[in-house]
Amino acid sequence: MIIGCVKEIKKHEYRVGLTPQHAFNYIEHGHSVLIEKNAGVGSGFSDDEYVKLGAVMIDTAEEVWARAEMIIKVKEPLPAEYPLIRENQILFTYLHLAADKNLTLALMEKKAIGVAYETIVDRSGGLPLLKPMSEIAGRLSVQEGAKYLEKPFGGAGVLLAGVPGVRKGHVMVVGGGTVGTNAVQIAIGMGADVSVFDRNIDRLCELDQLFGSRIQTVYSTPASIREYLRKADVVIGAVLIPGASAPKVITKEMLSLMRKGSVLVDVAVDQGGCFETTHATYHDAPTFEVDGIIHYCVANMPGAVPRTSTIALTNATLRYGLLIADNGVKKAIMKEPGLIAGINTCQGKLTYEAVATALDLEFTPYTDLC
């Protein structure tokens, strides 16, 4: 199979879909790998590193798209890339279609096979290709929240760790999954008071056993969220429904409960955000203010640390990408059934039910197309 990897064109996105070492893995399996010139530079990988390991360097993204049977990316295609997508071309990347109807319709019109990292499941029901970026985003979320809590950035001027005689900052984490757990870990490490919210009692028990008296676990309801918002300095939105639009757990009206200069960090922004006032931002202008509350809503948070993110992501995607390249999609699913959940579009049909529900489009099970 001809594998293509293009440079990401999303604003301030520095990750790349293949490292030189992982490109070499595809080559060892007998595949050809086309890399757009300078695709890996943002993550610290030179063109020479790819070439030395057998990849073919291509001057333009258009040529990579035109020749590749499978495109391996990081972020979803942007409108400028829609015309480059070909019928039956496999697109292996994060798609987040529930928040992007135009992209969904474009993939359906092009009859591309859209395999979304974020909806592939492993044998235990986990999300193995979402997990590494969730870990990074969770850890970054508190770091960014702490920074924008500083007065020069418009925040209230609170130090999360406090000092003797002065209260610590309070970090409120809504969602106890991978993002939330990693946010809690960093918030504790920074010396903050931490509360974590979830609607799964078993998960709250696990978090209590993991972190003990260092955190307060809270059953998530609108009333409990309202209560804790009054004392929160940083709120991390870490709510995820795989492949679907994120629920709005904090409304605009609730902002009036918060202290001015507090910070909201929405890690669910790729799925539409879990705050009513969320809209996507970029790393060069990451925040905006609503009713005196600072919002950090960067849609590609891990792109801020591309070296770490690229290596972590490609470590996770390699096995699945090789399965597809070696066997084709249908046979790969037979070897790894969890791949079927990753197929969001195929033969012009929308094949992921949560996306269809979110966008009010017709759902066709992938098995009906085989």
The radius of gyration computed from the alpha-carbon positions, rounded to a whole number of angstroms, is: 21 Å
Q: Architecture of the largest domain, according to CATH?
A: 3-Layer(aba) Sandwich
Compute the separation of the termini in Å.
Answer: 21 Å
β-strand amount: 15-25%
Shape field: globular
Query: Which segments are poorly predicted (pLDDT under 50) over 5 or more consecutive residues?
Result: none
In CATH terms, the superfamily of the largest domain is NAD(P)-binding Rossmann-like Domain
| Average pLDDT figure | 96
Q: Number of folding domains?
A: 2
The protein's oligomeric status is single chain
The major beta sheet can be summarized as: 8 strands, mixed
CATH C-level class of the largest domain: Alpha Beta
Explain how this protein is built.
With 370 residues, this protein is an alpha/beta fold. The chain folds into 2 domains: 2-127 and 306-369, Rossmann fold (3-Layer(aba) Sandwich), CATH 3.40.50.720; 131-304, Rossmann fold, CATH 3.40.50.720. Helices cover 32% and strands 16% of the residues. It has helices at 20-28, 47-52, 61-67, 101-110, 131-148, 178-189, 201-211, 222-229, 306-335, 353-359, and strands at residues 2-5, 32-36, 56-58, 70-72, 90-93, 113-116, 170-174, 193-198, 216-219, 234-237, 263-266, 287-290, 293-296, 343-346, 349-350. It has an 8-stranded mixed β-sheet, with helices on both faces. Helix 5 crosses helix 6. The model has no long low-confidence stretch (mean pLDDT 96).
